[in-house]
Amino acid sequence: MATISGPSAAALHSLSPSDVDFLQSLPKAELHAHLNGCIPLQTLTDLTEHLTLPADTTDEIAATVARLKSGLTLNDVSEFFPLFSAIYAITSTPSALGRVTRDVLDSFLKAESNPPPGFAYTPAPECSYLELRTTPRATAQMSRYTYLTTVLDEIEKFSADQAALIVSIDRRMSDADARECVDLAIALRAAGRRVVGLDLCGDPGKGDIATFEKHFKRGKDAGLGLTLHIAEVCGNTTAESLALLDWRPDRLGHATFLSDEHKALFFADLLQPGSVPSPATESNSRRNGAYKPCIEICLSSNLLSRTVQSLESHHIQYYLANDHPISICTDDTLPFRTTLLAEYAQLLAKPPLGLGLGREQVKRIAAMGMEARFVQGRVEVK
Ligand SMILES: CNc1ncnc2c1ncn2[C@@H]1O[C@H](COP(=O)(O)O)[C@@H](O)[C@H]1O
Known about the structure:
The protein is of the alpha/beta class and 382 residues long. It is built from 16 helices and ten strands.
């Protein structure tokens, strides 16, 4: 059962039953959900109780699970990433990883039997299509290949128009690790497995993106869609963001601190020199001859990790005002205690709980998310 609290819960509570029905009826794509960040709390608790865990990790795991149960408060986004060392200890075997993947897929694609505590609406599937992303990890019990095939085995129990995998590269990875992950993504895709894209993620304060450029280029050449976490914190330099934009990703995660000047430069409705795509790789992120990568917007994540102070000052306002493609996403439902429905509620709810958008505009935003799916590789041509 989903647990919702904080800003998205407040927005969802404020909606009428008819508004909730409306949001549930929209075809929606979840394009930015990290597997280990979206584990249902109940699944995590079950696994913690039944797994035999290394003695030196039990205290840390118990403390992290207790924090997640009581509701996380972060003073800064940098406090967020260390949480994953405990979660990773729980999902380090093929059987635990398989169970977690199954439960995460179900939480997005199947209707729950009950609404979240405190809510009375009739549960419906959170989305029509889920592009789940995860970072392949080699552990004592599995190789990166086993990690990916374990996740893919679960994803492929759903049809191709319901679920697909994006392989994440963590900014902390070495060149050799990134190479192995991208090689696996390319090989699995070539073998007919449902890998549709590559993601650059991880603590935005870590790593040197120059390490990864050649690997993302190889992935792109092999037909994988590219999505990059970009300018997530104010410490991400303009030089780094410009370099990432030069890789011509199809989608961008967060893009919180891209300057208006650079947004105008990159996303203007002007033909960008050198950006004309070949017909084979053309994507619908290029409209009117301009480069328009869809921005994956994660409202609760940004508010709770304190990279954005309020909905009023959220960068979604810029993208809405400039008619730039966006997609509404949850990022990590476990720590941010949200659901896709509750994220959409923040579009429709009246200020200050939400943005107060009209139904037609919300419908259009949901359609933009559906259009930005990688589906089978690069974004479909429109
Ligand atoms: C707050 N926003 C975020 N920004 C950047 N990276 C994030 C993230 N939320 C999650 N991750 C990345 O996803 C991993 C967990 O899922 P997977 O092990 O891949 O399934 C985290 O370790 C982190 O690298």
